[in-house]
Amino acid sequence: MHKILVIEDDPLVMDNVIDILELEDYDVLSAVNGLEGVQRALEHAPDVILCDVMMPLMNGYEVLRALRADEQTATTPFIFLTAKADRSDQRHGMELGANDYLTKPFTPRELLQAVTTRLQQQTAVAQKYQAQIQDISQKAQQQLYQDAITGLPNRLTLGDRFADAVTDYRQEPESNRLLCLASLRIDRFSSLQHDLGYGTTDQLLHAFAQRLKTRFSGHSIAQISDAEFVIIFKPLAHKKEVTTAIQAFQADLNRPFLIAQQRIFLAISAGLTLYPRDGRALRELLQHAQTAIAQVEKQGGNGCEFYSAILSVGKAPRLYLEAELREAIAQQQLHVQYQPKINLKTQKIESCEALVRWHHPKQGLVSPGRFLPLAEEVGLIDSIGEYVLAVAGQQMRQWQQEFGQPLQVAVNVSSRQFNRVDLRQRVLQILVESGLAPECLELELTESTLVSDFTVAKRRLEAFRHLGIKIAIDDFGTGYSSLQYLQQFEFDTLKIDRCFVQNIHQNKGNAAITQATIEMAHRLGLTVVAEGVENQAELEWLQTHHCDFMQGYYFSPPVNGSEFATLLTSSAMAPLKR
């Protein structure tokens, strides 16, 4: 049964359309406004979308633009229902990607003919590519157990190879021989990938794998990530045989790789473990090998080291903190605070930044700098980020209704969150549930969040901006390629890091940089927020040089909801004072 989504704010038209479609046995979904329509389209993946043009929250053109920006709905047939028959309106819709127009009032026959035609066209397209899809599926199946770039066995195959190696080892008559597992990581791989681009990096990885196979032929080799490789050595008599082999390979890497007419040098850090001394399970041995790699990297990389239990000393507190953080999330010990942003022209609070805080029942306030990096590393940052979004959205909508002000809230998005394919859908759902308008939400991103893939990041940012959500680049100027990001991406807000604001009235270098940044941002149409303002002199300098907003302890630290409401009241009654 084909699924049809109807987005229409007129109840009479909605009921008529649903009746017509259900009589033809279509499965009909409905939405009464554009924002809800986008959410339902992303949730249910309809076969055809019928959409009114003039609607509250998001009009039909904005709905179409948002859906065409999402891979899931980029090709879904889209038919406008409109009372506007102007040719320029129709041309505008077609340019955005609409497939058809139905002018109200339309007959049941016209409606059904339009839907049937789009379904038939969609079916024809699907059949055209069915053979290609089958071919791709077959290739994917072939590559299930090997890396697509290097052709090396992957992590799945490694498990089987390890089981075979353990079985053979146990059958060895000489029990004094050693079964060694080595993990090799390419040093500075992320920087190489960023500088060379993915195409050249793929060629480099392929050439590296060939050199690896030549050096370690006869041993089991696997690739468990882009930059990490594992070798299961045949049983050896001495540990020195392993280190000698690794060092010989490191010497091989002194010869450059010639890729795309470039001479590229690589270095590796290696962590070595022994079965069963360091563990009996593959996962445990790999973890210990990576611990040894971390030790090598601390010493500058391009070395190798055997795992020792002493390397794990000090990890217990971290594991304890992780367990406590998981419990804190489950027990709702985390809470959200709000730091106001002051419009330096009106001298009033017009927005705020939502910040998560953890008040431990025994340890008291746990520093965000301590638990947020851990949350990012172990995968808890997704649930924390979603919690902050939901709480801040509901609270902001409540304050808007209470104070009658179009307040805006900014929420930080981590790198891990930003790279989730369903982030946009979750943000949409939170907006619908809270009733907060998209233009009242701002997502703050750092440069490091955008560095992994410019093309994907740009597409995701555009999808959010099409919904009306604002985008801010946080900590501007602290990265090595800030200006490049302003060229590549469209932002709404630029936040100047506090390191440039601190003592700006006395530091000529910071003053020159900040003044130039403000002027450049204004020419690009960006709003400028100065972070970390802590005294009157800094504030006056920013006002003199036409900064738009300030944020910092000079006005207020992050505070809880009730304290922020008090600040809103005082801000509405009086100008900025200390």
CATH topology of the largest domain: TIM Barrel
Number of helices: 23
CATH hierarchy, class of the largest domain? Alpha Beta
Low-confidence stretches: none
Radius of gyration over C-alpha positions, nearest whole angstrom: 29 Å
Approximately how much beta-strand content do the residues carry?
15-25%
How far apart lie the N and C ends?
A: 66 Å
Strand order across the largest sheet: 13-14-16-17-18-19-20-21
Supply the CATH superfamily name of the largest domain.
EAL domain
DSSP helix fraction? 40-55%
The CATH architecture of the largest domain would be Alpha-Beta Barrel
The total tally of domains equals 3
The general outline is globular
Number of strands: 21
Structural class: alpha/beta
Largest sheet: 8 strands, mixed, barrel
* Mean pLDDT level: 87
